[in-house]
């Protein structure tokens, strides 16, 4: 598949790492991209790592759907309190000013448009930003939607963190999702071990690649790709 771009300089310079990114490097990148002062929810799985790399000067307030604002990094050692966990049941810390509230109030925050960003995992993301992350449709799979639909429709921006390829080598970034949808046209940015993608009604743009060129990335992904402009748009 050819790469629809006339910006050859972007194609040559889009690769920013000699190798694919690990989970922690990817979490560090996502944390860096979160706008200072944002209210953010981190989904279970890879997204929980983002809390470990947010800097105090960013003044980011983390929300967890089981009823907390002001969550800090993952707790370790003597910091661990069995009663203080995130939605993924991982022990976490609290920051000064943290607050706790009823589950219903937590979902009101999610559904009411009060979150600037949520970071979620995914089974598939479509070229236009559709999200499938709660069920593979397999007969023996256990559906686990949790608050994902509320987050996908309620947050102002939805970032996805995932590996680009399945264990069988198939791309999770697809033309059209084949798994049951969580949200339609909600994903604005996809962070993977091999690239950062910008998704939307105009198709998929690639902000940067890791361990591969844009041409090599195109061979992995069954949707047309083009290099994002210098300002990442």
UniProtKB/TrEMBL annotation:
Keywords: Transferase
Keyword Glycoprotein: no
Pfam families for the chain: CoA_trans
Family: Belongs to the 3-oxoacid CoA-transferase subunit B family.
Protein name in the entry: 3-oxoacid CoA-transferase subunit B
Biological source species: Arthrobacter humicola
Lineage: Bacteria, Bacillati, Actinomycetota, Actinomycetes, Micrococcales
